[in-house]
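fwd from M.: "can u put these together and see what the complex looks like"

so here's what she sent:
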Amino acid sequence: MTALTLHTVERDSFFTRLDFRSKLALMAVITLVAFVWESPVLGGLLALVMALACLAAGVKFGYIRTVVTLLLPFAVFMILMQGFLGADLVRARLDRETLTPLFTFPAAWPLIGGGMMTWEGVLYALNVVFKTLTMILVLPLGIFTTDVNAMVIGMVKAHIPYKIAFIFSSTLRFFPLLFEEIQTIIEAQRLRGLAFETMGALKRLRVYAKIAVPLILGALVKSQMLDIVLQSKAFTGSPERTYLHETRLGAADYVVIAGSALFVIVAAIAYVGWGIGRFGKW
Amino acid sequence: MCVDSTAPLVTLDNVSYIYPRVEKPALHDVTLAIGKGEFLGLIGPTGAGKTTFCLSLSGIVPQFYGGRFFGHITVAGLDTLDHPVSRLARHVGAAFEDPETQITATSVENEIAFALENLSVPHEEMLIRIPRALEATRLEGTAKKHPRELSGGQKQRLAIAAALAVQPDLLVLDEPTSQLDPMGAQEVFATVRELNKTLGITVVMAGHAAEELAEYADRLVLLVDGALVAVGAPHDLYAQVEYLERCHVRPPQVAQTFARLQQAGIPVSTIPVRLEEGIAALKAISSAGLLPVRVTSAAGTPALRKKTPPLLSARNLTHVYGDGTVALRDVSLDVYAGEYLLIVGQNGAGKSTLAKHFLRLLLPTSGAVYVDNIDTRDLTTSALARRIGYVAQNPDNQIFNATVEAEVAFALKNLEYDEVEIRLRVEESLTALGLWERREAHPLALSKGDRARVVIAAILAMRPDVVIFDEPTTGQDYRGARAILDISKQLRAAGKTIIVITHHLYLMPDYAERVVVMGKGTLLLDAPIRDAYHAVDVLASTHITPPQAVLLARVLAEEHQADFPLLTPEEVAACFTVNGFRGSFADG
């Protein structure tokens, strides 16, 4: 399984050539639309488009598979919750009383007897799952296809304060180090006889808690070292600085920004005018 | 040397410094002037105040740390208390010990540009300075590369290039070579010396690399417990072998050799501190009227080898990492019970990768690994950990508990021993490592050396048959390194099998008997230590330089056309008597 860490795609593609500002616009629009849409069909389509776009941009299939795998327990939980218990919410969304039963537990069963799973509840759960998946996948599409330095320049050009841009980029740089550290610590614990293979979930959780001590210590040491390194490189966080690389919006960037704007406008009109994207419409 | 003593670049005037929440001063009444263009070496045992000294030159001490600071430091006329670190950064470039943590950018050129951007250097000027810095540090052609594509030595040179681009007056380097293989260290020293000579940049370098500092530094400063106890040219300071050893500072092996000769009554007018001087002096001593030489070579690996089946065995082992890096190629190796094996090789040679296969932390891409004749594929890491203890380089990643006692008991609880057995083993292990009195202490409150001992104690409590030490001496001074290796010797005497991975070859003759030399994922040589240390060409092919004593022994061999498989200064010195040449050396 590909580890869920941050990385930069190796393939040169349409996405890697875009300015980070265009990607920011695209990410904002996709996130907004995914958030607003409640239609599982449109939501599913959007998630699928995002997954395909990620693959086209060079994000590894294994990474997407890991995201989906990690989302599975959440999906099952949502389907059970909404399918059995979300009837009121779904009725309110659909503005109707009758829901389509999928199956009902025999009334004699203790606790869950008489519980009914509804088709609409399942659809609503799927809408939440697709929404979440889209909002997750939009991140690798924007982040993995951009060099961290280009991100900082793009954000500064988008009038985001340099200090915030720097903190953001430092966090991204810090993540792989953190994952590496976690792996090293787990390795050290296995070398002290911890058999993760045969361990129950509860014990495993207790063991993971032990990782916190060396992890926090390591992070503190690293961040202090980083602080010293930054200071020795005259870093003050001041926006009064120059940049080695310039960034300019190209034709493709204008197309993406305009396309994003158009998409959000069309989606808004369709949503308000014809209810497209509302739950129960599509 | 272009030292202008009349106008020092740096002055320290009665400088004392105490870190917050600490009583003992890290620097104590230090007064020193550093001339323009000088290459100053900073030596001293761990905890002597070398890092604090370096950080104080850039103003980070005390501006970043706080604490109590007394006296004055000026750099290029600027008082480090009165000027912010960012202003001082125009004059002081710095590179630190760990090449990984000091690189912050995702490309070589961006790394160099970062400080320039912070100093608002115009874009056009950056385009001129970056290639210059790359050229000066011999990193041409790497501008667009990601720093992780560089070797350890290249990364350290990148850190220096980044400092250099600012065009500083002073370059401060804090143990920049301690994590590099000998060739990487050599690259860094050569680069720094060139910058010092050709550009006249003043250099302050802290470190334990005695041989290199003797070669390159104009002057040395010895710090002990925060105080400046001696200043002088390398010839003056490193020649005081006994005094330095009392201060727990390791002099170059050349100086050690001639000091031993002097002690033995051999007339040595001046103790040489550089290799070429040592070679010349040795030739002079051994030139006349010497007896024929008969030197006994070590038998090497013990006789029990091959009589018993191997305890650890790799068969045609190949390992390819996920990113396609071939870390091991067709490696076959047998390790027998009771052996003391040393594995050496350049950074990235596959040493740790090989060791991790014995613990099933990695699985072979092809080939097989056996522990006591059982394929590791059929075992779990936790099961293997009972038999093979692995002491990794950084003890802090291996500490999870709030007391030393709990730390040692951690593995035993995982292995579900009963309370009585746990108590017994914890006491036994802590006593063996001299930590019993500190059992209630928080492990992280101990010194780095003691933290390493806690980890070793925790591993010994599992009573493994094999203990693997992976770079145990990195970041330790001579005393700390010897202390850890002495533990390995005791374990060996107690019947354990020991494997040590290290770049510090000079430390190992007293401990190891068999050496495996690795390069680019292959096994280049598997030989007794005397043969391996004298296989200079094989070592060079994997970027390893033998200790100076070995090189001196090779001079003797050349002079006398005989075998001199000597390893240490003591052994070289033992070849001579007051009346001439002892002519033989036997292992003992």
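replying to her w this: Residues 4-243 of chain B form a domain with the Rossmann fold fold (CATH 3.40.50.300).
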